[in-house]
Amino acid sequence: MGLDLTIRDLKVTSPRGRDILSVPQLDIAAGSLVGIAGPSGAGKSTLLYALAGMLEAKGCIVWNDTDLLTLREEQRTAFRASHIGMIFQDFLLFEELSAAANASLTSLYRPRAQRAGIRQRAAERLAALGLKEPDRSVASYSGGERQRVAIARALSANAPVLLADEPTASLDRAAADKLITDLVALARTSGTTLIAVSHDQHLIDRMDRVLTVSDGKIVEPRGQAA
Ligand SMILES: Nc1ncnc2c1ncn2[C@@H]1O[C@H](COP(=O)(O)OP(=O)(O)OP(=O)(O)O)[C@@H](O)[C@H]1O
Fold it and tell me: Is 90 exceeded by the pLDDT of residue 143?
């Protein structure tokens, strides 16, 4: 089951003190599929990184009853490892490791009893995403293949929250549409809270709710349910 998100008075500033993101109030119900759209430089990735507890910020970012901004660094890391699956734009893969090892990396942060299950799911996700040689090191993979390894890694942990930054960006149309279908089906069946930044209208169209970020602020189209 996914987690509820409650944001109050969130402010992210640049190291030089410029306001990058300001969100007075945002509530997202567990199990919602939320798209984040908006122009380049608006603050979409900043919002996603803040939701993962990866940025210093002021205010409250509460997942169920855990306020990320009150946790110490190591507590945030532990929370992220057990609750949040992330698909980053720059993939953050370990070059020397195989696709299979990269896709099951989260097993290292989970109790021993869960590790075999994560490795098994990672192998299944890689196969489902069409990765044919999971034992090859990812250094030799193309951009689209690397994207799929990052996606398999995020999905293998079965986290209650999935945060995705442009998950279809390096895929061709057919692969992107398949991924969107898979992501939506997975989120629906497991009740995962899915929040995805995307310029891809096909993805945005499949979400329950779309938040448009403009100049560091959220503008939600009228008529959408909270
Ligand atoms: N560490 C930082 N120091 C200074 N400015 C930053 C920092 N991180 C982000 N910014 C600025 O904050 C703004 C929002 O950046 P962000 O990456 O969140 O935009 P975005 O909407 O995701 O854009 P894109 O669609 O191009 O990825 C930009 O003007 C960016 O230059």
Answer: no
Integer Cα distance of 77 and 72 in angstroms: 9
Q: Is the pLDDT of residue 2 over 80?
A: yes
Which residues are registered as beta bridge partners of 184? none
Which residue among 44, 55, 211 has the greatest number of ligand 1 atoms within 8 angstroms of its CB, and so is best to mutate?
44
Q: Determine the average pLDDT of the residues in 123-146.
A: 87
Q: Can you tell me the mean pLDDT for 163-174?
A: 88
ipTM of the complex: 0.93
Asked whether 103 lines ligand 1 (CB < 6 A), one says no
Cα 45 to middle of ligand 1, angstroms: 7
Smallest CA separation from ligand 1 atom 3, residue? 14
What's the pTM value of the predicted model, to 2 decimals? 0.88
Q: Which residues contact 175 (CB under 8 A, 6 or more apart)?
A: 130, 144, 148, 168
For ligand 1, the distance from its centroid to the CA atom of residue 40, given in whole angstroms, is 8
